[in-house]
Design goal:
The complex is a heterodimer. By secondary structure, chain A is mainly alpha-helical. Chain A folds into 2 domains: 83 residues, no CATH class; 210 residues, MetI-like (MetI-like fold). Chain A has 16 helices and no strands. In chain A, helix 3 crosses helix 15. The longest helix of chain A is centred in the N-terminal third of the chain and has 32 residues. By secondary structure, chain B is an all-alpha fold. Chain B contains 13 helices and 2 strands, in the order ααββααααααααααα. Chain B has a two-stranded antiparallel sheet with strand order 1-2. The radius of gyration of chain B is 25 Å and the shape is globular. The chains are: A mainly alpha, B mainly alpha. The interface between A and B is large, with 108 and 106 residues.
């Protein structure tokens, strides 16, 4: 299934000898040329919105209403546009920071609660274990939108609306992450943990010193996916913390900026670009983990 | 006390292990019950109320669901959701499978292509959709200019009730493609190479191999992608919100109001929380029926290696 070897299987190309034979076949060569053409055209379409975003973000206001369109702005004003963006949305930086706080809070929280629970379900016997496990997995079946309004009502009851607690605390629990980590923990040989137990280590020490370090790949994959989902989350913050600018996250800040019809497109694109950059950097560094995380989450059912 | 001790285990060691186990799972399980379990109960309870969230609720029994059955706006939103699903799922699956098959060859630059195709997946849907929103603007938008030679310069993609679902579907497909591509790639990599080698010896061409080996052996993956795609297509929200909020949220004449947007508006614009809960449950019911139907139908086309088709 989706273990650490998955990514290796993708990286390793199919057997070479069979393919060198195919290289010489003219039909095969034509097929390869066709493959490249399709892939390049496709890649162009996939990348185009990003290119257009950056290109527009550096355009002067007058260049927005000029035909023919400029692919690359003739007199780029990237830095100036950042300044104009902050003029229009003075708290833009704070939205970025708020998103970072929410993202880090949720990810660390999930890491703690879910690895504890995953370890408990993977290695311990206790009464009601199967029922509890089935119940938590059952929650995976429920689409979040079905409980969006009730979630809002619950948070209102707690007095958490428009506060960081609403944005972070519900997101620190996850049936899905728990399930993934449990799968990873189950792959670790029991003997390693047993020998530590004989040395007198308690379960928390074993989890921290043996199980977690040995499941690094799965933990990293889970972490990048959680970070990405938290950073890009829109509907939940819109409902749970839509009115308080002090805790406004970047996706909300962006959409509010767009809601004002007068906001020019170059500033909107600059805002979108700034909101995208942290995930782009993360992606460049942790590409493997992202791909692995997606294949895990796909196979996990979300 | 001794009763409790005995339910936990027979020996002191098993008892201690059982306590540890319970303590370890407690935070997450309790948190999940509070923040996801209780809301499910609240959803059912609220759906039986007429309630604006402030005044005391009025019990209306199944009244909300009766209203729902003849609510043309609800069925309109249902239709929009189904239309988007019928656009996005087949096209999205075909494209992502196609790209996965192409990238499953020995090609130079595979990693580069994979990165580019995957990029939209990690991007915030709000930021990405905003870029598309700009591209779809009439007159000065990118797409208007590409279509200008064919007379498409002044098409108002986002404000025309007949067209607005096209940009939405394009953005949804574009953002989802890389995700499904990765799942398909994993499935393709699991097909044993020797099946293709045997088929080559038998003189099969590429298309025959794709039809008779790839598609059947990939069908469990295809089924998984189909289920995931359908569920996510049923919940489209962000793209509709961003693409239409600049002019009129949900599109002109609600032409782009999906079920999730309708339930959001019912709750937070109209302040009708009971009715909104009923919409949420009805949507959940649709997803459930769709998924169960797909699971029932899978026996006809999904191939499992153990031989039990």
């Amino acid at each position: 299934m989706a273990d650490a070897t998955f990514i290796n299987r993708i990286e390793i190309a199919p057997k070479a000898d069979a393919d060198t034979r195919l290289y010489r076949d003219p039909v095969e060569q034509r097929l390869r040329a066709l493959s490249y053409t399709i892939l390049i055209v496709g890649a162009f379409v996939m990348a185009l919105p990003f290119f257009w975003m950056v290109s527009t973000a550096c355009k002067a206001p007058t260049a927005l209403n000029t035909l023919p369109l400029e692919w690359i702005p003739s007199n780029p004003m990237c830095i100036e546009n950042i300044g104009f963006l902050y003029e229009r949305s003075p708290r833009f930086n704070q939205y970025l920071v708020n998103s970072a706080v929410v993202t880090i809070g949720r990810t660390l929280g999930q890491l703690i609660t879910c690895s504890l629970a995953a370890y408990g379900f993977a290695r311990f016997q206790f009464p009601g274990k199967n029922i509890l496990f089935a119940l938590t997995l059952g929650l995976l079946m429920i689409p979040f939108q079905a409980i969006l309004i009730p979630e809002y009502l619950l948070l209102r009851q707690f007095g958490w609306l428009d506060q960081f607690s609403a944005l972070i605390i519900p997101g620190t629990f996850s049936a899905f992450a728990m399930f993934l980590l449990r799968q990873a923990f189950l792959q670790i040989p029991l003997e390693l943990e047993e020998s530590a137990m004989i040395d007198g280590a308690n379960p928390l020490q074993i989890l921290w010193r043996i199980t977690l370090p040995l499941s690094q790949a799965a933990v990293a994959a889970f972490a990048v996916i959680t970070v990405q989902a938290a950073w890009n989350d829109f509907l939940f913050p819109l409902v749970a913390a839509g009115t308080n600018p002090d805790v406004r996250v970047i996706t909300l800040g962006l959409s509010l900026l767009q809601g004002e019809r007068s906001t020019p497109w170059n500033l909107l694109m600059m805002g979108s670009f700034l909101a995208t950059v942290p995930m782009l950097i993360l992606f460049v560094i942790f590409q493997r983990q992202f791909v692995e995380g997606v294949s895990m989450s796909g196979l996990g059912g979300r | 006390m001794s009763f409790l001790a005995n339910t936990l285990g027979k020996t002191p060691l098993t008892r201690r292990r059982a306590l540890w186990g319970l303590a370890l799972v407690a935070p997450n399980v309790l948190g999940l019950m509070i923040f996801f379990g209780i809301p499910v109960l609240i959803a059912f309870r609220t759906s039986l109320w007429e309630w604006n969230g402030i005044r005391p609720p009025i019990e209306v029994g199944l009244g909300n669901f009766v209203t729902l059955a003849s609510d043309s706006e609800f069925w309109g939103a249902f239709g929009v959701t189904i239309k988007l699903m019928l656009f996005c799922v087949p096209i999205g699956m075909t494209l992502s499978l196609g790209v996965a098959v192409l990238l499953n060859q020995r090609l130079r630059g595979r990693a580069f292509f994979r990165t580019i195709y995957f990029l939209p997946v990690i991007t915030s849907s709000v930021a990405a959709t905003m870029a598309w929103s700009w591209m779809f603007q009439a007159q000065y938008g990118f797409i208007a200019n590409v279509l200008a030679p064919f007379g498409g310069a002044n098409i108002s993609w986002l404000t025309s009730p007949d067209l607005v679902l096209i940009p939405i579907a394009i953005v949804v497909i574009w953002q989802r493609l890389g995700f499904d591509m990765i799942i398909f790639l994993a499935g393709l990599q699991a097909i044993p190479r020797n099946m293709y080698e045997a088929a080559t010896i038998d003189g099969a061409n590429r298309w025959q191999m794709f039809r008779s080996i790839t598609l059947p052996l990939l069908s469990p993956t295809t089924f998984l992608v189909l289920i995931l795609q359908t569920i996510s297509a049923f919940q489209i929200f962000d793209q509709v919100y961003v693409l239409t909020s600049r002019t009129s949220l949900g599109g002109v004449n609600n032409s782009a109001t999906t079920l999730s947007l309708y339930l959001y508006q019912t709750a937070f614009t109209d302040g009708d929380l009971g009715y909104s809960a009923a919409i949420a449950l009805a949507s959940f019911g649709f997803i459930l029926v769709l998924t169960l139907t797909q699971i029932t139908l899978q026996r006809r086309w999904v191939y499992y290696e153990s031989g039990t088709t």
